[in-house]
Amino acid sequence: MTLQLICFYAFAAVMVASALAVVTVRNTVHAVLFLVLTFFTAAATWILAEAEFLGIALIVVYVGAVMVLFLFVVMMLDIKPESMREGFIRFLPVGVVVAAVMLVEMLGLIGVKAMAAKQMPADPAVADGVAQNTAWLGKALYTQFLLPFEIAALILTVALVAAVALTHRKRTGVKTQKPGEQVRVMREDRIRIVKMAAETPTNPTTGESA
Amino acid sequence: MSNDLILVAWTLFKILAIAVPLILAVAMYVYWERKVIGWMHVRNGPNQVGPLGLLQAFADVFKLLFKEITVPDQAGKFLFYLAPVAALAPAFAAWAVIPFDQGMALANVNAGLLYLLAMTSLGVYGIILAGWASNSKYAFLGAMRAAAQVVSYEISMGMALVSVLILVGSLNMSDIVNAQAGSKGLFDWFWLPLLPMFVIYFVSGVAETNRAPFDVAEGESEIVAGFHVEYSGSAFAIFFLAEYANMILISFLSSVLFLGGWLSPFQGWGLGFLSVGGWWWLFVKAFVMAFLFLWFRATFPRYRYDQIMRLGWKVFIPIAIAWIFATGLMAYYGVVTVGSEVRP
């Protein structure tokens, strides 16, 4: 048993355990944190398989950005675990049916795939004579798969713009600052210098100025 | 098997050789900050403990270590204790890929820059967890502010890294430094072609570390001390350590990415020992960048929250996107010399 294999089983065990904890723990924030741990160990197993770009990208995108926002939202919500648990018995049959159907489908898929199983080809990065996994991935994405890659990028951009357009509301009566106008303000716009003759104290008895 | 053991022992030794000086550097950095801000306020700063007050930071550390850690009533105990560690671990782990000199890095990995991006994005968990586990309104507000701010500025920071990547064509940190070598001295470094990105990177770095003028996460005047208001003793000391380790990290990173790392600013000018590159140049550059953090703190008033968001989203990100295109054109037409040859 090599060190690599020991590491893999350790990571895999942590991953499965934390994935189970995501759906079993009572506290929602704890559940999100277990999901973070699941992503992190998944990234570790990918790096173990020498797919370092995918592994670190998983951490950057999911752990570093998506889950932070997730945590943000879950912390803001006022979730009562008791009310979440109320309909458990009532919806149990539906859940069991859905779970059973999914299990059968997945087993069927694995069975079909296993019948047509082939030996995994050698690591394409090594086969192409490129030592770096990241460099190979970049080359493949920007040459062989350029069109699908660009279409995916376009779809994501459209989704982004659509999300902003759907949630953006024009509200009336909102006071906002316009930094451009603030910067353009000149001294003359704000103050007016009035020239007037200096007043001199007057003598109260004679009424003459001193 | 014995070879493996030697490798593990050697790696542990190298980790200690980075971590211990880093902790000492944090102590001296805190002292230096108090001194510099003192001078800028026309007062002396710490000058009682030890010669010139040099032992002040150590006195503070021992005071913190001997204080009691109080846990708020109804706080999430486990997460409350986990949060400082979650803040500290990424701040130290990121140092693994920093190249101090040619071939002088703990791990000279090929995906070094990506690893750095991953590690710096993990630091926010410590802050969020601290705010939530404290079960306090002030701490929670601080955590929310910190999270929104860090997530926003990470985008422009990542784009600044992308522009460096376009010029270098490698994620390896040593390659990035070597690509800035040349005969024109400091004008061969990336700060010149990527000047807007350099500014964006460093300012975003100040925002990412929640330092003044972006320190609304602490905001003493409104939310007392933000996410770590409930922490005391050594738990607070760990947050402090993480914050300053992150500041030193950002100083080193901007030096490596934009200021030529260990390369001499007089490289190729034939000035004898001054033209020779070495780790001392990296430390000088990082010291200057670290000084900027203190200068900012003593100079600028705190940004308002909406101003922070505006700067991040409406100013930095559009400039970064535009400059990525400009960088692509520069790389395509071979305007920038990378290493000794012009890239096609």
Automatic annotation (TrEMBL), chain A:
GO annotations of cellular component type: plasma membrane
Highest taxon of source: Bacteria
Compartment(s) of residence: Cell membrane
Species name: Tahibacter soli
UniProt similarity note: Belongs to the complex I subunit 6 family.
Record protein name field: NADH-quinone oxidoreductase subunit J
Function per UniProt: NDH-1 shuttles electrons from NADH, via FMN and iron-sulfur (Fe-S) centers, to quinones in the respiratory chain. Couples the redox reaction to proton translocation (for every two electrons transferred, four hydrogen ions are translocated across the cytoplasmic membrane), and thus conserves the redox energy in a proton gradient.
GO MF, one annotated term: NADH dehydrogenase (ubiquinone) activity
Gene3D superfamilies (alphabetical): NADH-ubiquinone/plastoquinone oxidoreductase chain 6, subunit NuoJ
EC nos: 7.1.1.-
Record's catalysed reaction(s): a quinone + NADH + 5 H(+)(in) = a quinol + NAD(+) + 4 H(+)(out)
Membrane topology: Multi-pass membrane protein
Keyword Magnesium tagged: no
Assembly, per entry: Composed of 13 different subunits. Subunits NuoA, H, J, K, L, M, N constitute the membrane sector of the complex.
Residue intervals passing through the bilayer: 6-25, 32-49, 55-79, 91-112, 145-166
Keyword line: Cell membrane, Membrane, NAD, Oxidoreductase, Quinone, Transmembrane, Transmembrane helix
From TrEMBL, chain B:
Keyword NAD attributed: yes
Family per similarity comment: Belongs to the complex I subunit 1 family.
GO cellular component, one term: plasma membrane
TM annotation in the entry: 7-29, 78-100, 112-134, 146-169, 189-207, 236-259, 279-299, 311-335
Function: NDH-1 shuttles electrons from NADH, via FMN and iron-sulfur (Fe-S) centers, to quinones in the respiratory chain. The immediate electron acceptor for the enzyme in this species is believed to be ubiquinone. Couples the redox reaction to proton translocation (for every two electrons transferred, four hydrogen ions are translocated across the cytoplasmic membrane), and thus conserves the redox energy in a proton gradient. This subunit may bind ubiquinone.
Cross-referenced PROSITE patterns: COMPLEX1_ND1_2 (PS00668)
Family matches, as InterPro entries: NADH_UbQ_OxRdtase_su1/FPO, NADH_UbQ_OxRdtase_su1_CS
EC code: 7.1.1.-
GO term, biological process aspect, one: aerobic respiration
Protein location: Cell membrane; Membrane
Keywords assigned by UniProt, alphabetized: Cell membrane, Membrane, NAD, Oxidoreductase, Quinone, Translocase, Transmembrane, Transmembrane helix, Ubiquinone
Organism listed in the record: Tahibacter soli
NCBIfam families linked to this entry: PRK06076.1-2, PRK06076.1-3
Lineage top rank: taxon: Bacteria
Name listed for the protein in its UniProt record: NADH-quinone oxidoreductase subunit H
Record gene name: nuoH
Keyword Ribonucleoprotein: no
Gene Ontology molecular functions: NADH dehydrogenase activity; oxidoreductase activity, acting on NAD(P)H, quinone or similar compound as acceptor; quinone binding
